[in-house]
Design brief:
There is one protein chain. The chain has helices spanning 4-11, 18-26, 36-41, 71-84, 107-116, 149-159, 232-246, 257-276, 322-335, 358-367, 376-379, 398-411, and strands spanning 47-50, 57-62, 68-70, 88-91, 97-103, 174-177, 191-197, 203-209, 221-227, 282-283, 299-302, 308-313, 319-321, 339-342, 348-354. The protein is α+β, with helices and mostly antiparallel strands. The longest helix has 20 residues, at 257-276. The chain is globular and about 55 Å long.
C-alpha cells in the first residue's frame, strides 16, 4: 500500500499550493473546508494548522538562519504576534521563532511582511531541511576556530526554494559548531559539522551523521573524514542527494536518514561520496569528543573585541510576550548594534554591548522581565509547544514545567 503522504506530494508539489492559500485567505475559508492535503502542503510555506487552538488558527515558524536576527526583524515578528496572533513568541530548540494564533486571512500578509525584513518561513516543516543553526555566539568569541555563519547561509542556499531538495523522505536537521567544545546535542542531528584541526594544523570539520531524537533516539555515526570549509557545501549536497535517492518512502517511522545509514553502513555513505564528489575527502579517524559540561548562554560574555559584550538572557521555556521581543529590539538599538542571537536552549542574546553600557542594558532587560541570571532549574529545562497548540502532543508542557520548576525551587532540590 502506497504511503498516503507520498501520494499527495506526488500529485501536487507543495510549493504550488500558495496561490490556493491566497484564495483561502481572501475568502476567509474555514479550516474544515480546506482539503487535508492542502493543510499539509502549507507547512512547506511555514504555516501549521492548529486544531487545538481557537477554531481555524495557524502557527507560523520563522527561519532564523545561523541564529542571527536584526532589531528590525525582531520588531516585525513582535508586531505580527500582537496584531494577528495571541501576543506570544516562542523560541525553539532549533533557534527558530514561532508565532501562534493566526487566522487564514493573515497568512499572505505574514509572508509579505517577513520578506520585507529579510526573513522567510519557507520549508520549516514536514519533509524539508530545517533551520540550519550554528553556535549562537559564532564570530564573536575568541575561542572560535571558525566563524560558521556564512556556511549556514551557504547551506541554506542549496535547498531553499529548490524543488529538487524539497521532497525528501523525511525531515533533515543540519548544524555547525565553530568551537572545539561540542555539547551532546550535536550527536542528535542528521548532519553536524564540528570544528577541529587536522594533523597539519588546518582548521576544518569533523562530521557526525544521522543522529535522531524522539521516542527511539540514536546517537550519530562519526563519518571518518576531515572536511575543509570549501568542501562543506558539495558534501552537504551529496548527503541530501543520497537521502533523496536511497531513503525509504514506504514507512514514515523508518524513513529518517539513520535508517538508511543502518542499511548501507558508513562504508556505503563513503562510497556514495567518492562517486559523487569531484575531490577526494581526507581520511580522519579522530572522533569528536562530547563536552562534559552543558553549554550556557545566560549571563555576560566578553567578546574578542574586548570592550564589547554579549548579554545572554533567560527566556523560561522559550516563551516571550510580543512586548518583550519588541523591547529587546529597542534595547539592542539603544545599547548594542541592533543585532540579536537566538539559542538552541530557547534563549536570546543581545550582542556588541560596550562595557560602559552593560548595567543600563541589564536594567532595561529586567524592566522587560528578562534577566542575565538564571538558576539551574531555568538553565536545565526546555519544553516543546505541548497540547495548548500542538496537534500531536498528548499533554500540556510549558505550564506544567513552570509549576515543576517552582516546586523544585521551594524544595531546594538539586
Amino acid at each position: 500500500m502506497a504511503n498516503p503522504i507520498e501520494v499527495w506530494k506526488a500529485e501536487r508539489h507543495p510549493f504550488d499550493v500558495w496561490p490556493d492559500v491566497q484564495q483561502y485567505a481572501a475568502a476567509s475559508t474555514p479550516m474544515d473546508q480546506i482539503p487535508a492535503p492542502d493543510l499539509e502542503r502549507m507547512k512547506w510555506h511555514g504555516f501549521f494548522y492548529r486544531k487545538r487552538d481557537a477554531p481555524g488558527r495557524y502557527m507560523n515558524r520563522i527561519r532564523i538562519t545561523a541564529n542571527e536576527m536584526t532589531a528590525d526583524q525582531a520588531k516585525e515578528i513582535a508586531l505580527m504576534a500582537y496584531e494577528y496572533g495571541h501576543g506570544i513568541v516562542d523560541i525553539t530548540t532549533r533557534a527558530n521563532v514561532q508565532i501562534q494564533g493566526l487566522e487564514i486571512s493573515h497568512l499572505p500578509k505574514v509572508t509579505t511582511r517577513l520578506e520585507k525584513v529579510g526573513l522567510t518561513s519557507k520549508q520549516t516543516g514536514h519533509d524539508n531541511i530545517r533551520n540550519v543553526f550554528g553556535h549562537p555566539f559564532s564570530g564573536l568569541m575568541s575561542h572560535d576556530l571558525i566563524d560558521t555563519r556564512q556556511l549556514c547561509r551557504d547551506v541554506d542556499a542549496i535547498y531553499l526554494g529548490n524543488r529538487d531538495f524539497s521532497d525528501l523522505p523525511r525531515k533533515l536537521n543540519i548544524c555547525f559548531n565553530g568551537t572545539e567544545d561540542h555539547p551532546a546535542h550535536y550527536w542528535t542531528q542528521d548532519l553536524s559539522f564540528l570544528a577541529a584541526h587536522n594533523s597539519d594544523g588546518d582548521v576544518g570539520f569533523q562530521v557526525l551523521l544521522a543522529g535522531t531524537q524522539g521516542q527511539n533516539p540514536r546517537l550519530a555515526w562519526h563519518l571518518p573524514v576531515f572536511v575543509y570549509p570549501d568542501q562543506v557545501v558539495p558534501l552537504t549536497t551529496a548527503i541530501i542527494e543520497l537521502f533523496r535517492a536511497k531513503g525509504t518512502r514506504e514507512k514514515r517511522n523508518n524513513a529518517r536518514l539513520r535508517f538508511l545509514v543502518e542499511e548501507i553502513g558508513i562504508s556505503g555513505v563513503l562510497q556514495w561520496l567518492e562517486e559523487k564528489l569531484p575531490f577526494r575527502l581526507e581520511p580522519s579517524i579522530a572522533e569528536p569528543i562530547p563536552s562534559s559540561t552543558p553549554e550556557e548562554f545566560v549571563g555576560w560574555y566578553r567578546q574578542k573585541e574586548t570592550k564589547l559584550w554579549t548579554m545572554g538572557l533567560s527566556v523560561p521555556l522559550g516563551r516571550m510576550t510580543w512586548r518583550q521581543l519588541e523591547g529587546l529590539a529597542i534595547l539592542s538599538r539603544k545599547w548594542g548594534s541592533s543585532e540579536l542571537r537566538t539559542t538552541q536552549e530557547q534563549g536570546i542574546a543581545v550582542i556588541n554591548i560596550p562595557t560602559g553600557f552593560k548595567s543600563a542594558a541589564a536594567t532595561d532587560a529586567a524592566a522587560l522581565g528578562l534577566s542575565v541570571h538564571a538558576d539551574e532549574y531555568e538553565l536545565n529545562t526546555m519544553a516543546c509547544t505541548g497540547s495548548q497548540f500542538c496537534n500531536i502532543a498528548v499533554t500540556e508542557t510549558k505550564g506544567h514545567m513552570l509549576q515543576l520548576i517552582n516546586k523544585l525551587r521551594k524544595k531546594a532540590l538539586k
